[in-house]
Design goal:
Blueprint (H helix, E strand, L loop, with lengths): L3 E3 L8 H11 L3 E3 L9 H6 L1 H24 L8 E3 L5 H13 L1
Helix pairs in contact: 3-4
C-alpha cells in the first residue's frame, strides 16, 4: 500500500476537500495548504507581477515546514494524503514568469 499520496490540480478544484475526505475514510494523516495564512495572497491577485515572488516564497516555506514536520513522524505506520506536490513550486514559478513577461 502507498504511504504518501498527493492530490494535485489547479486552484479551486477541491484538492483540499478531497484530501480531507480521503484522509477521514482511510484514517490517514492529511497535510494541506493553508492559503489563509499567506499574507501576500490578496496582494498577489491585485498585482501578480509585483507580489508573485513573495506569495510563492511564503507557500514554499510553509510546505517545507509541513514536510519537515511529517518527516519526523513515522511515515511507515500511517498513510499521509497531501493536497499539493512539493515540486509544483517550480511549475507555478514558471507560469508566473510567463504571464508577467
Amino acid at each position: 500500500m502507498f504511504r504518501y499520496i498527493v492530490i494535485e490540480g489547479p486552484i479551486g478544484v477541491g484538492k483540499t476537500s478531497l484530501t480531507k475526505l480521503l484522509a477521514k475514510e482511510f484514517h490517514a494523516r492529511d497535510v494541506v495548504e493553508k492559503p489563509e495564512e499567506n499574507p501576500f495572497l490578496r496582494q498577489f491577485y491585485q498585482d501578480r507581477k509585483k507580489y508573485a515572488f513573495q506569495t510563492q516564497l511564503f507557500f514554499l516555506l510553509q510546505r517545507f515546514q509541513q514536510q519537515r514536520e511529517i518527516a519526523q513522524l513515522d511515515l511507515f505506520s500511517q498513510v499521509t494524503l497531501c493536497d499539493y506536490l512539493f515540486a509544483k513550486d517550480r511549475i507555478f514559478a514558471s507560469l508566473i514568469w510567463m504571464t508577467t513577461n
